[in-house]
Amino acid sequence: GYHDIRCVESGGPEPGVGCAGRGVITSINFLEENGAYDDVDYVSYDVLGDVVCGGFAMPIRENKAQ
């Protein structure tokens, strides 16, 4: 992308079905497996903050975010 910026957007389950946090960790794992984090200086995540699902803690538990 512009100035070597990489941007990815991933969707989640239909409203009221499944856990959006699980989609977040699945997306992060997919990006890792496909080398998206190779030769990157900085990574920023923008995730929903109003979700009642505790699944958003999964990336933190797996040391994928701080």
SSE blueprint:
Layout: H1 20-33, H2 58-61
Structural notes for this entry:
The structure is a single chain. The chain has helices at residues 20-33, 58-61. The chain is mainly α. The chain has one domain (2-61). The longest helix has 14 residues, at 20-33. The two termini are 25 Å apart. The model has no long low-confidence stretch (mean pLDDT 76).
List keywords for this structure.
66 residues, mainly alpha
Helix fraction bin: 25-40%
The SSE order reads HH
For the sheet with most strands, the description reads:
none
Poorly predicted spans: none
Name the overall outline.
globular
Total beta-strand segments: 0
Mean pLDDT: 76
- Roughly how many Å apart are the termini? 25 Å
Strand content: under 5%
The domain tally reads 1
Give the class from helix and strand content and strand pairing: mainly alpha
Radius of gyration over alpha carbons?
A: 13 Å
Number of helices: 2
Task: Please outline what is shown here.
This protein has 66 residues and is mainly α.
